[in-house]
Amino acid sequence: MDLQLNQRTALITGASSGIGAGIARVLAAEGVRVAIVARRGDALEKLASDISEAGHPRPHVVAADITRADEVQRLARAAEQALGHVDILVNAAGGSRPMSMNASDEIWDEAFNLNFTATRRVTQALLEGMRSRSWGRIINFSGSMEPRDINGAGAAKAAVHFWSKGMASQLASEGITVNTIAPGRINSEQILQKLHPTPEARAAFIARNIPIGYFGEPADVAYLVAYLASPLARYLTGEVIAVDGGMHTFAH
Questions:
Q1: Distance CA 220, CA 244 (A)
Q2: What is the Cα–Cα distance from 241 to 172, expressed in whole angstroms?
Q3: Beta strands 88-91 and 136-141: pairing type?
Q4: DSSP string of 24-47, one letter each residue
């Protein structure tokens, strides 16, 4: 199937590893001209080289900290200058923030800044360009598992759900769609090194919570992103789509 993405442009945050890097690889393979954003410039350069060596357009690298408002404006302008404009925005940056019940304002603010505010700021920095062209795709990320403890990322991602749905309603008539992906356990640094650092821990979690029987790969999410980013997905907006091997249905 031709997704009609050749020569479209995209900016992907959180692209230095894991899901973000997987999305960059898949979109570049579809002919999308990509700008990749993260704090780790060396990892971005390595990813850009890998994509180029695979025969796809080399992504434009923007090393930036999206939790800083001034950096958001800089990265947005750098991406627009390199690509001409941004058709597709993938807000893949984020991170788990488990915390105690009496966590301080500083801890909560950091969790929301990374997992909600940065996404909102990057979107706002690029939205007017999409509106001026009457075409755009915004793809956000949230979470899929009902919480059993306190995690600042979960609360922030709940905000992403509501904000995304509101934007989807307001922008639908302008040719801009807004959808959210709720990934389950996808093999990445965060999952393999922090949440489930041993094979035994992974096996136990899978046995309890994931009917399909294994953790997903970044490409399992990236292929959905490619479809949502395409003109073929024009009638799909305001959705929250779980990519989790059935975990959201059967967990706990």
A1: 9
A2: 18
A3: parallel
A4: HHHHHHTT-EEEEEES-HHHHHHH
Looking at residue 32, its amino acid is: V
Residue 145 has pLDDT above 80, yes or no: no
249: pLDDT confidence band, cut at 50, 70 and 90?
low
Contacts of 46 (CB under 8 A, 6+ apart): none
Kindly tell me the burial class for residue 149, based on how many C-beta atoms sit within 10 Å of its own C-beta (0-12, 13-18, 19 or more).
exposed
Q: Which residues contact 55 (CB under 8 A, 6 or more apart)?
A: none
d(CA 27, CA 49): 15
Q: How far apart are CA 169 and CA 190, in angstroms?
A: 33
Q: What pLDDT, on the 0 to 100 scale, is given for residue 100?
A: 87
DSSP-derived letter for residue 210 is -
194 pLDDT above the threshold of 80? no
C-alpha torsion 186→187→191→197, nearest 10: 140
Mean pLDDT of 198-205: 86
Print the SS3 string covering 172-207.
Answer: HHHCEEEEEEEECCECCHHHHHHHCCCHHHHHHHHH
Taking a C-beta distance cutoff of 8 angstroms, is the pair 95, 153 a contact?
A: yes
State mean pLDDT over 142-154. 79
Cα–Cα dist 99/129, whole Å: 38
Neighbours of 205 (CB within 10 A): 17
- For residue 91, give the nearest of 54, 137, 131 by alpha carbon: 137
Q: What is the pTM of this model?
A: 0.93
Name which of 153, 190, 222, 172 is nearest 3 in CA terms: 222
* Phi then psi dihedrals of residue 141, to 5 deg: -125, 140
- Show the domains of the chain with their CATH numbers: 9-241 (3.40.50.720)
